[in-house]
């Protein structure tokens, strides 16, 4: 199995044929982390990423937006940690989106996300994203009420309109040189229970346990239906979703770094070239410096 194959295995470029229930959250593509080839693949995907990201930064033409969505305890944090080990922190920012505050609620739903987009040469990771607007807001209609939308705009076509707006937003980003890579870390309901239990049983994980997460778990089926619709409605060529089997954290990490590596390889960013004139000026500067240093 090569990184390229792993990246493509979970990519959804035309959501219209997609069904979340067809994805096994425990899938590992036949790889086993106890075996050397999987460990090598994991290490390689990070090593390659480091080199490619430097070129992305140096070239300064493309930007990369990584969108991470998951159910609670889906492993977003550990995925971010893993990707960050492969990147120069100066070239990457993480933005976490929580419940919107009063100022954010007075704006359209994309406003705060637009403000967090990456500039050219950079990678930005959205830890939760504008997609919460068709997930948590859809599962809990009372959240929508807080958004003070004019009542004429809150009809049966609200969610379809949001999907249309998101598609247009991401199309605009793609046309401007921002590559949009979306990941849904897919865990099973049982795996979520196991992870919550760890948070209760292990003292140094207690801080991660939240009673609110237990409340949300009661809406599991509604979330799955909303996720399925989200992927079907917004996975397109210019902004694919990667539906990552995430019951095994090592596998989810490997898929994410493989997708990033494969994407950057395709962009093939180049270091800026030096013109003849610049080379001449550098040579002159070199003579001055060498003279000053007595070399
Ligand atoms: P972790 O629990 O791993 O620290 P998290 O992303 O779950 O990470 P929390 O602070 O627990 O962070 O939760 C953030 C909450 O904010 C989530 O429940 C999410 O659904 C909610 N949220 C994010 N965006 C919106 C939004 N646009 N409208 C309403 N709620 C939102
Ligand atoms: Mg949480």
Structure, described:
It contains 13 helices and 6 strands. The chain has helices at 3-9, 36-59, 76-85, 102-105, 111-114, 136-139, 141-145, 158-175, 189-201, 211-217, 220-234, 249-267, 276-292; strands spanning 11-12, 63-70, 92-96, 123-127, 178-186, 241-245. The longest helix is centred in the N-terminal third of the chain and has 24 residues, at 36-59. The radius of gyration is 22 Å and the shape is globular. The relative contact order is 0.21. Bound molecules: adenosine-5'-triphosphate and magnesium ion (MG).
Question: What's the layout of helices and strands?
Answer:
Elements: H1 3-9, E1 11-12, H2 36-59, E2 63-70, H3 76-85, E3 92-96, H4 102-105, H5 111-114, E4 123-127, H6 136-139, H7 141-145, H8 158-175, E5 178-186, H9 189-201, H10 211-217, H11 220-234, E6 241-245, H12 249-267, H13 276-292
Parallel strand pairs: 2-4, 2-5, 3-4, 5-6
Antiparallel strand pairs: 1-6
Bound molecules: adenosine-5'-triphosphate and magnesium ion.
Residues 72, 77, 97-100, 128, 132-133, 136-137, 143 line the site of adenosine-5'-triphosphate (ATP).
The overall pLDDT average reads 95
Write down the overall geometry.
globular
Number of strands: 6
- Sequence stretches where pLDDT stays below 50 over 5 or more residues: none
| Helix amount | 40-55%
CATH structural fold name: Rossmann fold
Helix/strand-derived class?
alpha/beta
Order of helix and strand elements from N to C terminus: HEHEHEHHEHHHEHHHEHH
Biggest β-sheet strands, sense, barrel: 6 strands, mixed
Q: Report the total helices.
A: 13
Q: How many domains in all? A: 1
> Which CATH architecture?
3-Layer(aba) Sandwich
> Which small-molecule ligands are present, each listed once?
adenosine-5'-triphosphate, magnesium ion
